[in-house]
Amino acid sequence: MKKWIGLLLTFTLILSVTACGGAKQDNNEAIGEVEIGVPTENKGETLVVWTFTDELKGMIENHYLKDNPDLPYKVEVVVVPNDQYQNKLDPVLASGKSAPDVFALEAGYVKKYVDSPFTADLASIGFDRDNIDTLPYVLDVATDTNGVLKGSSWQATPGAFFYRRSLALEYLGTEDPEEVQALVSDFDKFYETAMTISEKSDGKVKMISSLGDLVQVFYAAREEGWVVDNKFVVDPKITELMEMGRKLESNKLTNQSEQWTEQWFASISGNDVFGYFLPTWGLHYVLKTSAENADTGVSTSGDWGMIQGPSSYFWGGTWLAMREGSEMEAAAADLIEYLTLDEAFLKTWAEETGDVLSNEAVVNEIKDGFSEPFLDGQNHYAAFAEMATKVDASILTGSDKDIQDLFTEQLTAYSKGEKERDAAMEDFISSVKNQFPNLEY
């Protein structure tokens, strides 16, 4: 027991130091010459995969195993609920006992594991980032502060602004995506358009449902991340976000709902909210599934348009990593390569699910063949493909989720007039100091 606790404490300490990230850099420049290795032969009989999503389990069972029916080893997929995932993953990685060979990581905490010693260098098992067609931002997310590639993903999750065409036509005089984009092409224009919609609708139509809808966009627009060279940083965009929040809330330009609540979802099928900031998966799993009004049976499907909005951003995503010390290197390499680089599989997956891929070669091959009825025939895939090339993920750190949770509390308090900005900022910085005492301030 004491040995296990010691290992866990060591693991936690390493993550707390390394996950806070470093200066913003071009990882392609940081890498330099990389020696591409060959995975060692398998020493076990079972490849163990951990995931927080059933999606990966389905990909493996319905595609990988069917395409590889004669594997000389078993593939065991363990699905752990996301709210329990890190708590269960951390101790087994620290101890090395009952640990997965391959494990999935989501955007909210991928850097925590990438910047730890428990994820393997994928170049050592044959991945050459200079000779694959994966989007640069997707590779950057899974590259550690030393320029070592530690993960790979099949998908890209650029974000967009989805708006109601009928409301745009009624209050802005146009529903055309290019013309609506011009009205929200930066944050100042976004606010002006919000005011216009509110005034012309007598306050009945809000620009967005929740203040939380904006945060991903502002975070992505920053020049610097929360932590640079172990120093805590508040980028000017954070102050701008606070002021935008105050203006939107004080002028009643949001529906004052919280994300993922019943009220927030209800406006997707109503007529009281102009638009939503959502990424690729938001189209299929949020908007489409909530478009029909439960009381009237009327659907807003076909009445939506999709544009970039004020700034490029991404939201979410799943990366696959191999555990350092795995005895199933060859099997792990084969699985990760198949799911994230195999063009035949990726094309099938995209056509089957509509998932936007990280592989630019396949995306360019298929992107012009999409027409989305939910968006009145708009080609969402081609639009997302263009948006993905503009995403910059170089400022991400392993501390982002925890710091942003602390910030959201103060953003809400200031936006609703419960605190003044200086007090809210002081409380925010104080809470970060308590949780991350090893940072410089």
Can you put this structure into words, describing what you see?
This is Carbohydrate ABC transporter substrate-binding protein. It comes from Petrocella atlantisensis. Pfam families: SBP_bac_8. 45% of the residues lie in helices and 9% in strands. The protein is of the alpha/beta class. The protein folds into two domains: 2-156 and 315-377, 3-Layer(aba) Sandwich (D-Maltodextrin-Binding Protein, domain 2), CATH 3.40.190; 159-312 and 395-435, D-Maltodextrin-Binding Protein, domain 2. Strands 2-1-3-9 form a four-stranded mixed beta sheet. A hairpin with a 2-residue loop joins strand 5 (227-228) and strand 6 (231-232). The longest helix is centred in the N-terminal third of the chain and has 17 residues, at 2-18.
At a glance:
By secondary structure, this protein is an alpha/beta fold.
Shape by Cα distribution:
globular
Q: Report the average pLDDT across residues.
A: 92
Oligomer: single chain
| Total count of strands | 9
**Cα-to-Cα separation, first versus last residue:** 37 Å
Q: Measured on Cα atoms, how large is the radius of gyration?
A: 23 Å
Helix content: 40-55%
Q: Low-confidence spans: pLDDT under 50, at least 5 residues?
A: 1-31
